[in-house]
Amino acid sequence: MVDDNLRFLGIVDNMTTEQLGPSIAVDGAAVRYHRLYTAHLGVVGLAREMGISRDYIHKIESGKRPTVSPEMFGRLKAALGVDTHALLAPQNQLTAVG
What we know:
disordered N terminus, 5 helices
């Protein structure tokens, strides 16, 4: 998980999607959770919001598509109304060096 100190400082939330790299590992379960409980959208609704197919959403949520482009990540987080850290897979999470 993202270290709470880094989140407090806004380091992760203020990162641009380009700073995360050419392909961003997303947490499919987090995408599904935020689709259902934050954005209150079905798969079709999220796909429409993003201008992509529902199959693409299903692949992200099921882990069959574990990474997305920075552009797609930005569209995903905007459509779900969440911050960057909410969708990152554990391998993308930052930890404090101590």
